[in-house]
Structures are given as C-alpha cells and as structure tokens.
C-alpha cells in the first residue's frame, strides 16, 4: 500500500514491509519530491556564510542567496566565531598540523587531547574524562560498552538495564540497543520509582539515563530528585547535558550546577558542538570507569582522534568563565523572544533554556509554517514525528547571544503575520 505523503513523516520509510532497500529508497525519493514541490523540504539548506545570527542561504527553488535570521544553530554563545577561539584553532594547526594520524591507543593521543580531557573534567569538578569524535558517539558508544543483555539467559547476574526518560536523545536509544530497556514518562518521578522498584533485584548494572536540557522542549530535568531515587534503588545516574553546558547555571555548568548535583551524578556526557563552538563529545566519570572505556569502548579505541583544531575548545571552556557577559546576553535574548511569543498567544511549553519551541500540533501546518517563515527571512526547524509525537509537531528555535533585538523583533513580527494565515495560537 502506497504511503499517504500528506500525512507521512520520515519515520514511515524506516522499514517498509515487503520492500527491499532500493524500493524503499525510491519511494522515499518520491516523498522528498512531494515535499519539495510544496516548498516543504526545508532541510539541508545550503549556507554561503559562517554560523551566525544571520546566514546567507540558497533557499529551496531559488538560484540566488537570501539573508535570513538564523534560529537553527546550537552555537548559543557565538563562540565558533569568537576571535580568541579562532586564534587557538589556528595556533593548534600551526603547532600540530591538520590531523592526529591514529587512534588514541596506538599513537593518536597528543598533549592537546590530554589537556582537553583534564579541562572538561575539572569544569564539572571531576578528575577524569574520555573524548569521542562526536557527542552522539559519546552516548551511543559508552552505553554499548557498559550495558549488556544475555538473550539466552535471564539470570540477573548476566543482564543490565537502562532506565530512560522517554524524551532522551536518539543517541541514547541507539546506545541501549544491546541491553534491557525500560522507559518512564518525561520527568515523571512516580513512574520512575515504580520502574526502579521493579528492577531492583533483577539486574546487575542499573542506569537511569536522562538529559539535563531536553532538545525538543527546552525544559530541564529535576536532577536531584532523580539521582536520589536512582541511588535509593541501587542504580547509577547518567546525565547528558549537551544543551545545558555554557548556557544554564550561574557559571554555565549546566543543569547539574543549577541543582548543585555535582556529587550525585555518576556519569556526565556532553558535546563540544553547541555552546563551545567546535565538535566532539566527552564522558566524565570516576577514573576506573574512564580507563575501562579508553580500552574497551570500540568506537573510541578504533577511531582516529580529533584534530589539533580542538585547541579552540580549550579556549572556549576558559571563556565561559572569563567572559560571562555572553551568557548574560544570551539570557536577555531568550527571555525577550520567549516573552514576546507568549504575549502573542503562542504555546512555548515549559522551556527553560535557549531552545524555544512554538507548538503547532499538526504536521502539514508545521511544514507550512516553516515555509512561510523562510519566505519571511526566518530560518527555523520544523520538527515532527519521530523526533516528537505526531500531535506535538512544532517550530523549534535556538537563540544565540549574538542575536540583536532587531533580529528577534523580525521573528516576532513574522510569527504574528503567519498566525493570521494558519491560526497557530488560541486567539
């Protein structure tokens, strides 16, 4: 049966019964062509300029560039363009060249890797960290390495369990494919306790895995309460605070700092690709776990290490403390845009970060809103199933410290105009 393209999402093409991969790819291409014909394929848009509050884009169907206000970047503090960060990257390349040449265990571990491991660990008041090539891999590779399942033997001594907030990042779901999994409703402590109680004597390693800031709603986890529950039932807690670092907390240490939960979190994962303006991932834990991962985590052990350009990350981490004014500017912008949307009647949910969703609830209407925003010179992310539930489609925006009030006013005016056409608010 042919898929109804009007109601479809990318998820519908993951595994079509009775079709081989070439047949599925052909049908998916038809779906992409359908989106493109309706100006709804607003993904993989080519940019001619650097990451910033404005970007010069070649919009779908155009043969010329258009300047748009950019609300799709995770470069929250603007550090990818900071002169001191750029200088550090250039110096790294001048000293060490453009590549590391090997995997970490057999010649690819350099002083700048060691410095970054130490600096990111100390940033969170810990001693040891391990680096991965991406934040995604930091989650998926670590969890695959430490959590296991024996499908042939239910013996508790042979099986582990991952207990997930249902809204955790896709990288976590990939990381737990090889172990037992239970989920609990988002930030629902009562349901979490039930899962923990039922799992207490049935598994070896039990891990509760959550985000600090959730990437689709921008809301935060109650880390203290979750950590207390996890430890009460003999479980460990893992926090991925990719969207919190540099943004949340008095000193930019994320939701862990917000809750002063440094001593409660057993493992911290994150990325350098957001507020720190580079690329790569990290895991922070006790020294024994970190050393275990350095020699047992296959994606770390067999991947060539990061280039000397990561010396820019060392400077970016320092700038979080040296120039806190960027975080102040960011929060001024977050509050200005968020309050402006709320005053106009838009549903932004419970966001408490630089991620601001405008909830629409209908996939076709969300795609049309994305098209009209682009036409108005506003570059946002239309988000739909499976990233969120089918009834929770939304326009997601990421605010930057380098946005001006003029940029944000243009965004607010565009939403007001689009609301008159699509009726996105309850007015």
Notes on the structure:
By secondary structure, the protein is α/β, with parallel strands linked by helices. Helix content is 38%, strand content 15%. The protein has 14 helices and 14 strands. It has helices at residues 21-37, 83-96, 111-123, 135-146, 170-175, 189-199, 223-232, 254-258, 287-296, 298-301, 311-322, 325-343, 363-375, 405-422, and strands at residues 46-47, 54-58, 65-70, 128-132, 161-165, 180-184, 206-211, 236-240, 267-271, 281-285, 355-359, 378-379, 381-383, 394-398. The strands form 3 sheets. A 7-stranded mixed beta sheet has the order 4-10-9-8-7-5-6, sandwiched between helices. It has a 4-stranded mixed beta sheet with strand order 1-2-3-12. Strands 11-14-13 form a 3-stranded antiparallel beta sheet, covered by helices on one side. β2 and β3 form a beta hairpin. α3 (111-123) packs parallel to α11, α12 runs parallel beside α14 and α13 packs across α14 (405-422). The radius of gyration is 22 Å and the shape is globular.
Structural class: alpha/beta
| Tally of DSSP helical segments | 14
Mean pLDDT: 95
**Strand numbers in spatial order across the main sheet:** 4-10-9-8-7-5-6
Query: Helicity, in percent?
Result: 25-40%
Major sheet characteristics: 7 strands, mixed
Envelope shape: globular
The rounded distance between the terminal residues' Cα atoms is: 40 Å
List the defining traits of the structure above.
14 strands; alpha/beta; 427 residues
């Amino acid at each position: 049966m042919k898929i109804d393209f009007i109601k479809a999402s990318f998820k519908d093409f993951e595994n079509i019964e009775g079709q081989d991969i070439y047949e599925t790819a052909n049908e998916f291409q038809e779906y992409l062509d359908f989106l493109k014909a309706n100006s709804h394929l607003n993904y993989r848009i080519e940019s001619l300029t650097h990451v910033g509050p404005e970007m010069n884009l070649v919009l779908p169907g155009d043969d010329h560039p258009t300047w748009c206000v950019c609300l799709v970047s995770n470069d929250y503090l603007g550090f990818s363009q900071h002169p001191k960060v750029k200088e550090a990257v250039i110096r790294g390349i001048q000293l060490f060249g453009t590549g590391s040449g090997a995997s970490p265990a057999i010649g690819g571990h350099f002083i700048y890797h060691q410095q970054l491991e130490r600096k990111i660990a100390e940033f969170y008041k810990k001693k040891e960290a391990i680096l991965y090539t991406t934040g995604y891999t930091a989650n998926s590779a670590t969890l695959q390495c430490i959590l296991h399942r024996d499908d042939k033997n239910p013996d508790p001594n042979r099986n582990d369990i991952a207990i997930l907030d249902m809204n955790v990042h896709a990288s976590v779901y990939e990381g737990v494919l090889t172990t037992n999994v239970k989920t609990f409703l988002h930030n629902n402590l009562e349901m979490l306790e039930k899962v923990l109680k039922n799992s207490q004597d049935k598994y070896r390693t039990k891990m509760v895995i959550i985000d600090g800031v959730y990437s689709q709603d921008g809301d935060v986890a109650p880390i203290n309460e979750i950590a207390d529950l996890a430890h009460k039932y003999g479980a460990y807690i893992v926090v991925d605070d990719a969207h919190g670092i540099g943004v949340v907390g008095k000193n930019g240490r994320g939701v862990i700092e917000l809750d002063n939960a440094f001593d409660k979190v057993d493992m911290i994962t994150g990325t350098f690709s957001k507020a720190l303006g580079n690329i790569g991932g990290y895991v922070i834990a006790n020294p024994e776990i970190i050393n275990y991962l350095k020699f047992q985590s296959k994606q770390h052990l067999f991947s060539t290490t990061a280039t000397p350009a990561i010396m820019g990350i060392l400077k970016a981490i320092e700038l979080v403390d040296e120039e806190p004014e960027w975080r102040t500017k960011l929060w001024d912008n977050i509050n200005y845009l968020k309050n402006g949307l709320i005053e106009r009647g838009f549903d932004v949910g419970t966001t408490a970060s630089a991620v601001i969703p405008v909830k629409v609830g209908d996939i076709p209407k969300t795609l049309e809103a994305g098209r009209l925003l682009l036409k108005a010179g506003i570059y946002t992310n239309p988000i739909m199933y499976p990233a969120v539930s089918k009834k929770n489609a939304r326009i997601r925006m990421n605010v930057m410290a380098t946005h001006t009030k003029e940029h944000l006013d243009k965004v607010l005016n565009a939403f007001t105009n689009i609301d008159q056409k699509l009726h996105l608010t309850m007015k």
